[in-house]
Write a structure and sequence with these properties.
Elements lengths: L1 E2 L8 H8 L7 E6 L6 H9 L5 E2 L5 H11 L3 E5 L5 H4 L12 H14 L6 E6 L8 E4 L2 H10 L14 E6 L3 H40 L8 H31 L1 H13 L5 H15 L1
Parallel strand pairs: 1-2, 2-3, 2-4, 5-7
Antiparallel strand pairs: 6-7
Helix pairs in contact: 5-8, 7-8, 9-10
């Protein structure tokens, strides 16, 4: 994959000559729409050795679409659409070493501290340990559709709620610290709940297998109700476990600070949430 990008666009003809690929392969151009608001993302790209196009005009989105149609094997990706490692994919990808159970637990921990968790998807990547612990991104495709809908009021994309991805850097020491604190504070409670959940799940699976051997009309109301009761109790146990993790996240200063910093870097921290972040930051440095 050939990666070429420049910092400013002044003369289109000269620019196209300058970036014409000398080798076969896909060409990816990184761009930003606001060099102040997206400063953190631009700096991350520069630290990786990439430059960034600045498209800050009202018609630049149309221009990008035009260039992608005219230039073969070419795509433009906004600097905050993915992590840098995803925007510019390399042959060797770091493997996420965090266990699946810790990933699931940490997802609930972060959801517990997120102000609008329905707007976020949480994913995990093994970025560099010096990269940010949390990075918020937004799909290039959905952003373009939403932006284009501003010029077309009847577009179906205008009414779609905003969705963001919160990428957890599993290589970062702070993320590892949160996992350790979760273990220290909740390990005993979670283990007890896990044993109960496992026991209930085993019993439910057994009941379902036994009921499969019978015809529907042969099953008694008592048998059906007993299975439903056990399934409901199992869901309550799972809910209790999730709420413990979410409560841990909601009360953990480090988790809340990380999330607010990530939101702030994406210009999503405003109003009361921003005020709370300022107050908490002062408390942290006292």
């Amino acid at each position: 994959m050939l990666i070429i990008s420049i910092l400013h666009l002044k003369n289109t003809k000269n620019w196209l000559k300058k970036i014409k690929p000398k080798k076969k392969g896909n060409t990816i151009y990184l761009y930003a729409t606001d060099k102040e608001e997206q400063y953190t993302y631009i700096e991350q790209a520069k630290n990786k050795g990439y430059d960034v196009l600045i498209f800050d005009g009202q018609l630049d989105l149309h221009f990008i679409n035009y260039l992608e149609q005219k230039l073969t094997k070419t795509s433009f990706k906004r600097i905050d659409a993915e992590t840098i490692d995803k925007l510019i994919e390399k042959e060797e990808q770091r493997k996420v070493e965090m266990s699946e159970s810790d990933q699931n637990d940490l997802r609930h921990v972060f959801f517990g501290a997120l102000p609008n968790k329905e707007e976020f998807l949480i994913s995990y990547e093994a970025l560099n340990e010096n990269d940010l612990p949390l990075v918020i991104t937004r799909s290039e495709y959905m952003r373009r559709m939403k932006d284009m809908s501003q010029f077309s009021p009847k577009s179906m994309y205008g009414g779609i709620p905003d969705m963001y991805s919160m990428v957890v850097n599993t290589s970062h020491s702070i993320i590892k610290k949160i996992v350790s604190e979760k273990e220290e504070q909740l390990s005993e409670d979670l283990q007890k709940l896990d044993k109960k959940i496992e026991s209930f799940q085993t019993e439910i699976d057994k009941l379902k297998e036994e009921q499969k051997k019978k015809k529907e009309e042969e099953l008694t109301t008592t048998e059906k109700d007993y299975l439903k009761t056990k399934e409901k109790e199992l869901e309550e146990l799972k809910k209790e476990r999730k709420e413990k993790l979410e409560q841990f996240g909601a009360n953990n200063t480090i988790v809340k600070q990380l999330i607010d910093i990530a939101l702030l870097s994406h210009n999503l921290l405003k109003g009361e949430a921003f005020s709370n972040f300022i107050k908490r930051s002062i408390e942290v440095i006292k």
